[in-house]
Protein 1
Amino acid sequence: MKLADARERAGELRRLIAEHNHRYYVLNQPVISDFEFDILLSELETIEKIFPELITPDSPTMRVGSDLTEEFRQAQHRWPMLSLGNTYSESDVTDFSERVRKGLGYEPEYVCELKYDGVSISLTYEAGRLISAVTRGDGTRGDDVTMNVRTIRSIPLRITSPGALSSFTIRGEIYIPRSEFEAMNAERLSRGEAPFANPRNAAAGTIKLLDPKIVASRPLECFLYNLLGEHLPADNHFDNLMAARSWGFRTSEIIERCTGISGVLAFLSRWENERKQLTYDTDGVVIKVNSLEAQRMLGNTAKSPRWAIAYKYASEQAGTELISVDFQVGRTGNVTPVANLMPVLLAGTTVKRASLHNSDQIDILGLCYGDRVIIEKGGEIIPKIVEVDLSLRKDSAARVVFPNECPECGTALVRNEGEANHYCPNYLHCPPQITGRIVHFVSRKALDIEGLGEETIELLWSNSLIHNVADLYYLRHEQLAALDRLGNKSASNILAGLNKSLTAPYHRKLFALGIRHVGETVAKTLAAGFPNIDALISADAEVIESLPDIGPRISTSVKEYFADPDNIEIISRLKAAGMTFEGPAREMTAKGPLSGKTIVVSGSFQNFTREELKSLIEAAGGKIAGSVSGSTSFIVEGSEMGPAKRAKAAELGIKLVNEAEFLKMIKEWPLDTTM
Ligand code: IVH
């Protein structure tokens, strides 16, 4: 290779690496696998070794990828947050141990841990309290995400165990367990939102959210793997981690001290398969020299320590050909592209289809029909296309273009600002949306109506017996029994199932309506916040938004739904058929920021009626009392508060909280529960 060619290729590689780093660390939307990324990086390393004059201080071989964003305050790391050299073969691990042995003059003890696939975090404690949580950033400075990290239950906010260090830094990996991730994605899909591609992306995206309340609702976990500080309890990594565990930090049980490299290699092969049984994603093993003194002797390169290395397991990938793309319209109108592939064997199953998520994903990949694509099985069940082999693309290949019109009804598609998905707004007449809504209504998680599944709904629809969910309750036995695939028995079953559903829990009925962005959890919140559907229908957007975890996106969607006379008509026909839409007589047992508080409401309020305010308090876990007494926790004070109540409050020293302060209290849940 000539110097000029090397310079050009190095420039190209740096551009590519910078772009993929940005996609991985900032956008949380990587399009190539870690393995592919490491190949680019090692090509650049090789060029820089042959032509050292091409090395620049800002080369990605000299610096770690950065996750810094503009939204967060930045904080300096007291100890740089380095990355690890990646290897994919046992011989690289042996080479590493040789380098270590030469550097130290003896073979040290190693510690093997799994490499958790999440986002790294640096926690600083002072006087036993968590004072900051900072992402890796560019290794020197990171984003200060303390407010978000405080919501993770397994991270102690205070260290109380006797003998614990009071000031130190501890680092670890924040992740989302696989099953929680799947439940979270199912919930997103049920709300008509785009799913996350894998648990790592979900964790990385969550930790950078601007609203800690949403972060609190996400199932984040953390494993701690590195203790740093002035007077550490032990002179080696393993014992320090054990000490941290005894102070209340969550560390993995899977950690092993190995004498010599043979123990390390045995750990690698044992966990290659066993790691798949774990509840969280891991992508390799981290091998660390145990003694801190030996670590100091070996030191660091610009980017990573010489005393540790990451061995990565090959990810499960396969190459195949893209045949066509279906644009599927879901019940909320969301249009999802799904790739049809030449069948290929991947991790023991034959794969014919892969998710493409949304139009951005198609553009990022620059996908063309007939492309040779690499598919990968990540945390999710449906594999995804991670890469296109451009060298095999034919000149005549046609780009995959996301349609402008709904493939089912021809209506122009809409994409709301800030949302990744296109959807068909023809809510009333787009066939898959109508049948999809009815199928959703009868589905297991909604009203769970026996005898009615997708096929029967299609049958009823194609025979013009139903046009919406209310029609189900006006079906007659003879209409059902006369249908081809049904008979007397099925007809009776269906009618019995429909009858039973009339008394299903209120929140399930709200969920069953299929309001955009109202998944199971939101439906429960709405049902707890409004005693019946009429109160919800007439509520103002601000009142809806004052419920925990409800923002303008959801309140707008709810308001839009009830503003449609067809929906109101459906609800009144459901009611006429005997369906009730109300919660049970309220028990004050909801869990929330006001759990355990007894609250008196007095006077009148700007944003709420008194009844609405009481509903809100109950939804947030509080108990309403009619009069002020020694057990009153506080009084929500409106204008024209009664003088008797005021005097009693003063006498008993009970705090008055005005409307704005009260709203703040329930909005800041779960951070401010100190009242
Ligand atoms: S130790 C000097 N231990 O891998 C680096 N890192 O590629 C010390 N990671 O930034 C890191 N599991 O986010 C260490 N058991 C483990 C790990 C681990 C995952 C991540 C971490 C680090 C990245 C390096």
Note: The chain has five domains: 3-55, 86-260+282-311, 315-419, 431-576, 598-665.
Protein 2
Amino acid sequence: MSTLVNYDAQRVLVTGGAGFLGSHLCERLLKEGNEVICLDNFFTGRRQTIAHLLSNPSFELLRHDVTFPLFVEVDQIYNLACPASPIHYQHDPVQTTKTSVHGAINMLGLAKRLNAKIMQASTSEVYGDPEVHPQREDYHGSVNPIGLRSCYDEGKRCAETLFFDYHRQHGLDIKVARIFNTYGPNMHPNDGRVVSNFIIQALQNKDITIYGDGTQTRSFCYVSDLIEGFICLMNSHDGFKGPVNLGNGSEFQIGELAEMVIDMTNSKSKITHRDLPKDDPKQRCPDITLAKKELGWQPTMPLEKGLKRTITYFKSLLEHHGADAISQGN
Ligand code: NAD
Ligand code: UDP
């Protein structure tokens, strides 16, 4: 069970609120008695992730694109709007960069007018294909500026720059989270990320597609742990801005994850190998010393337990929508 943070109720804007992380964040903020404005252009977000919140009088849904200015009155802003999975952010790479950069400018401008506190959902991708392992916040990264992942990586890096310049130039109260791979219920079933792909393939007894030889590593953070980290960061002491890594410190090879998912679903799936996408990081694992020290935060959900909950979620999606609906992203 997560602990409820004791702070006064606020009016909170969550951009990207209908997405995977945003939907969990909206729910958590409402549970704590806040008023929530959920903003989304529904590029990868889905109505059903927030459908259960629509009848709550403290919840408001706004269809809006963060690349355009916004005028609302709020105390806090969580800026999550941006497609997060490689196939989605590479679908319209120019729009991805615009979302990160213009979106950050618009949300920072709003925060400046309102004197609101603002948190940026940055990413471990700012470290690129890292030469330092595990990654600490003072590592500046190894990012290809012209590759297929650059629209996302460089967009997020530029957004961090904007956050820190708005702080230095305008005294804005900023918080920057560098999020590492997170998984759990409400993930888009068709976004191609490794956890959702493997679970859906295994539940359908289809081949499990490992890209490359499967020795590349990732660390997997369960969504409730990450949301707890967001809340701790937003409510951290005034002087603390980050950037701070939020992720799980346990590292797994992609091949190991495939075996775990096959075992846990009793699947007949076989493993197949596909080409490793260009610029796919070979290893990734957060050093979370700073988060422990400054936020008193660390993940508590073991991978096996989190996977079990995620498998239950996708099993129910398959039962209710069937395989075709899943492949169309219901
Ligand atoms: P997601 O794709 O499920 O959610 C992103 C949301 O933003 C969607 O609802 C989408 O419709 C919305 N959106 C996209 N462009 C928009 C725009 N121009 N205007 C308004 N809304 C827009 O992804 P997620 O996993 O929930 O990620 C949320 C944030 O966290 C992203 O900023 C992502 O970069 C960051 N992040 C996530 C992870 C992860 O593992 N999930 C890791 C690192 C960083
Ligand atoms: N991956 C894989 N099979 C899949 C999807 C992803 O082997 O069906 C690999 C991918 O190449 C990467 C890792 O799993 O090495 C994590 O991929 P994901 O897209 O989830 O996130 P990333 O960390 O690369 O942004």
Note: The pocket of nicotinamide-adenine-dinucleotide (ligand 1) is lined by residues 15-16, 18-22, 40-45, 65-67, 80-84, 99, 103, 121, 123, 179, 181-182, 188 (CB under 6 Å).
